[in-house]
Design a protein that fits this description.
This protein is α+β, with helices and mostly antiparallel strands and 257 residues long. It folds into 2 domains: 68 residues, Arc Repressor Mutant, subunit A, CATH 1.10.10; 173 residues, Alpha-Beta Plaits (2-Layer Sandwich). It is 44% helix and 25% strand. The protein has a 4-stranded antiparallel β-sheet with strand order 3-1-2-8, with helices on both faces. It has a 4-stranded antiparallel β-sheet with strand order 5-6-4-7. Helix 1 packs antiparallel against helix 2. The radius of gyration is 21 Å and the shape is globular.
C-alpha cells in the first residue's frame, strides 16, 4: 500500500483550492478598497469601483465582503475601524527599488511587520521619498481580446488574428493619438493601455464609443527606469515580493523591474 488515502488526497486538494480562492478574493477586494478610496462608494459615479465589484462578483466573492471592502476604502469598516492609505519604500535584493501601497488601521503594527519581513528576506526599509520619485502614477486599461458587439462577442481577436490584425493596428494608432496615452501592449488575454491621470477621461470615452470590452482598470505605479537582472536574481526578488504580499494590510507592490 502506498500509505496515501483518497481522503488525504481530497483534503490536500481542497486545502490547495481554498488557498487559491482566498488569494483570488484578497486580490479583487484590495482593488475595491483602492477604488472606493480614490473615487467614493457610489458605483454609478465611480467606474473603477464598478469594475472592481464586477470582477469580485465574477469570482463569487460574498456581498458582505464586498460591502466591507468598500467601507474600508471610504475610511471605515463594519467594525468601525478607521483605515488610511500608506506608502512605504524599500530596497529589495540587487538594488531593486520597491514601493509598497498599504491600507491599515494600525501604522505601528504594520511597519513592524514590514520591517521584519523586508530585513529577513535581504532588503531594507527606506525613508519616504527615497525611491517614490522613480515611479509614475498611471492607469492601466485592460481591453479583452474581443469586440463587445451585439452578436455575443463572437468576433474574438485571438481567433481571427490574421483577419483582424489591421484592426489591432488601427486601434493602436487611434488610441496612441489620444492625449495622455503613454504606452500600449498586447498579451495573451488583453490589450493594455497605459494612461496618465489627465488622459483617463479621454481614453474611457474612446473605449465606450468604440464599444470595446473593458475587463479591468488598475491604478499602477510604473518605474521610470528598470533594473536588469539575471534569471536567478529576478527569482530572488520575486520571492522577496511574495513574502511582503502575505501581509494582510499590503494592497500592491511596485518594483523597478
Amino acid at each position: 500500500m502506498s500509505g496515501h488515502s483518497k481522503w488525504e488526497t481530497t483534503r490536500r486538494q481542497k486545502s490547495l483550492n481554498d488557498s487559491k480562492k482566498a488569494k483570488s478574493f484578497t486580490k479583487v477586494l484590495k482593488k475595491i478598497v483602492a477604488a472606493a478610496k480614490q473615487g467614493g462608494g457610489n458605483m454609478d459615479n465611480n467606474f473603477l469601483l464598478r469594475t472592481a465589484v464586477d470582477n469580485a462578483r465574477a469570482v463569487n466573492v460574498p456581498s458582505s465582503n464586498i460591502e466591507s471592502a468598500i467601507k474600508k476604502g471610504l475610511g471605515t469598516n463594519v467594525e468601525g475601524k478607521i483605515f488610511e492609505e500608506i506608502f512605504y519604500e524599500a530596497l529589495a535584493p540587487h538594488g531593486v527599488s520597491v514601493l509598497i501601497q498599504c491600507f491599515s488601521d494600525n501604522r505601528t503594527r504594520l511597519i513592524s511587520e514590514l520591517r521584519l519581513v523586508v530585513e529577513r528576506n535581504g532588503g531594507r526599509m527606506l525613508d519616504n521619498g527615497s525611491v517614490s520619485w522613480q515611479f509614475d502614477l498611471q492607469y492601466m486599461f485592460s481591453i479583452g481580446l474581443k469586440l463587445n458587439t451585439s452578436n455575443d462577442n463572437i468576433n474574438k481577436w485571438n481567433e481571427m488574428k490574421k483577419e483582424r490584425i489591421s484592426d489591432i493596428d488601427t486601434f493602436e494608432l487611434d488610441i496612441m493619438e489620444i492625449g495622455g496615452v503613454l504606452d500600449f501592449s498586447i498579451d495573451s488575454e488583453s490589450i493594455n493601455v497605459f494612461v496618465s491621470p489627465d488622459g483617463y477621461n479621454s481614453v474611457k470615452e474612446f473605449l465606450d464609443k468604440g464599444n470595446y470590452d473593458i475587463v479591468d482598470v488598475e491604478i499602477t505605479y510604473v518605474p521610470k527606469m528598470r533594473v536588469s537582472l539575471s534569471e536567478s536574481e529576478e527569482l530572488e526578488v520575486s520571492t522577496f515580493v511574495s513574502k511582503i504580499e502575505e501581509i494582510d494590510d499590503v494592497k500592491d507592490i511596485y518594483v523597478s523591474l
